[in-house]
Amino acid sequence: MSRTDRTAASLALLLAACKGDDIEISEVEAVVSDDVATVVIVTWRTDVPTRGHVLFGVEGEGERATADTPEGTEHRAVLVGLPANAAISGEVVSGDSTAPLPPLETGSLPDDIPTTSFEGEPGDDFALTSATVAGSEEIASNWVLLTDPAGRVVWYHRDDRGLSIFRARASVDGAGVVYASVLENGGPSENSELVRVSWDGSTESAVAVPNLAHDFVEREDGVVVSLGYVFRDDIEGNDLVEIRADGSTESLWTTWDCFDPVENAGDDPAHGWTHANALDYDLASGDYLVGLRNLATIARVDTATRTCPWGFGGTGGTVDIEGTRFIHQHGFELAGDRMLVFDNDGGAGNVSRGIEYAFDEDALTATEERVLVADPPLYSFIMGDIHRLDDGGTVLLWSVPQLIDRLDAEGVRVGRLSIEGGAALGFVELIRDPGR
Prior knowledge:
Elements: H1 3-11, E1 25-32, E2 40-50, E3 53-58, E4 64-65, E5 72-79, E6 87-94, E7 97-100, E8 104-105, E9 115-120, E10 126-134, E11 139-147, E12 153-159, E13 165-170, E14 176-181, E15 193-198, E16 204-208, E17 212-218, E18 224-232, E19 235-243, E20 249-254, E21 276-281, E22 288-292, E23 297-302, E24 307-312, E25 320-322, E26 332-335, E27 338-343, E28 353-360, E29 365-372, E30 385-388, E31 394-398, E32 403-407, E33 413-420, E34 424-425, E35 429-431
């Protein structure tokens, strides 16, 4: 069946015979998005103001639920997380009443999208990442990709701005994805932007913020805080820049607030002094965690006082670390009393790795717990990411090899996602239930 036929079928009006006596559901329609062939838009009416949601899934693969719609009589829900060319089933639920979805199939992926393959046991999380496709001399395109636990692409967006994309996140309002288009030929760009795209692909907006760097976070209030580049006396440092919904910005902190270019010298002047490249947000304290590649330091930053309570590793370190040293790190995660670091260059030879430390923040001491190396070993001279799972397992993203590994609590690989057709992967965000 062609996509046109599928769309026509999905638009067929279903005057639903509802189960339940209190609310009448009618005019249920389901249509595949014109912009993202794996996203389905469902609309329906109720005879009284109420809330509602959609239970949906691929036939034979279980069921998920959308978030509730706002109270009213006209309802719209977006189904996210579906694979291409799949038969979809489900039902609309409002109060105690239900109505089936009309039969439909999702569409096909674009011909030029990076391809994926998966081996092992599927986990529980969807993975949101970016894939850069290089041309002969420059970036040809970027893809922001969401894959399901089985490694299938279930959402995508192509970006042709020509700048590097390292970070994409599901927006806190549940409406879509936010990503940053940042570097030009590996360096700062006056044309960098923060971009938001709806899940159904129908809306895209961008805020121009010059000299954005690799990573950002979105707080619960919807305000984005990003790494940025700052220049003083011909020295390239970094800052944290707050980006509000109206496009206004404010610098919250700079690397000069905590470090000195002489006392805390970087080891790769071709890429600036500090080269901040990874960022996290501690909701409990309101502090930020900033990875500084050229210092081999991860710093806790208190923007209220513009101070750093501690630095973990490297020339900016104040934590007493016993064990393996990391160099040119990228992704990291402070998971309870564990510090996880993706170490790009600290291993012997061309070997990247994940390092786990037991970290006592009160005593400012840390001890190496284990080192995680792929078998056979992998090397990524840029990017890379690491996350702790709820079951004690670990996710490692190898950027240049374009692989995402899931390890069990013992460090044994139990799943591997391969993304082919690009040049490198950005960071990865793990999402349990996209679209909510």
